[in-house]
Amino acid sequence: MKTYLVPTDFSRTAKNASLYAAELSAAEHADRIILLNSYYISVYESILPSPDLTIPTEQIVSDEIASRLRQLEKLKEELQLVNPDIEVETHLSRLPVLRAIHEQISTTDIEVVIIGSNGKNDDAGDIGRNAIAVSKTSPVPVLVVPPRNKWQNIKRVVLACDFKKVKDIIPLNNLKRLLIERDIELWVLNIGRHHAEEEDALKQMLSEFNPKYYYTEHTDVITGITSFVSKHKADLLIALPRKYSFFEGLVHTSISQGLAASSSVPVLLLKDEHN
Description:
Layout: E1 3-7, H1 12-28, E2 32-38, H2 43-47, H3 58-82, E3 87-93, H4 97-107, E4 112-116, H5 126-129, H6 131-137, E5 142-145, E6 156-161, H7 166-169, H8 172-179, E7 185-190, H9 196-205, E8 212-215, H10 221-231, E9 236-239, H11 244-258, E10 267-269
Parallel strand pairs: 1-2, 1-4, 2-3, 4-5, 6-7, 6-9, 7-8, 9-10
Antiparallel strand pairs: 5-10
Helix pairs in contact: 1-3, 10-11
């Protein structure tokens, strides 16, 4: 069963990612979407008053849980309007966001986590602020959707990597799973200096997909990548594991600076099973 995990805090950013997931599920013939909401109250919150001088009583907690369950059901209905064939499950966890996500991954065969992000200055809720943390720690691929990105069929994919480290960081199994039997145009963008031996190795690894190879000479790597994506109207940008600072900068730049909101593209952090 092909299952997407979609954490939500009911913010606009999270809702947009949920709708993107529904569109993707229709295009990819996924079987199920799990909508996950985290409602966690720390020990300190349970004994100390909030800024408005309230302490979460049992009744307040009960009412909040009921409200969140209603919102999950409403969002479920919206996703099924987008894709009537998709099964949507709603889960409410009392764990912190990251722990809730990891617990769900540990008990379910999740293909990808789809999450919204507004970057470092996100003020839209826990999900947006935790997007990078989720991407760093998730054992499965994570797709980060910019706040205003709207679904369009994935036809052009940019894989950004440093050719000199290609043998160590290319998650070949998951990359092939993504590209196989799909009508996708793959562009490989080198973010480092030219290395003939490593480039030849990469070409051999990806030969069945007939990719095009490009280089960015921009002094700022992040700007070079986002400019390339914008210029070539890519639908998806793939970032690789073990380069988390690069990925973090890439996500934040693509959302806040690099591209106009209407043309920002989702970023997929792709890992192999052992990573």
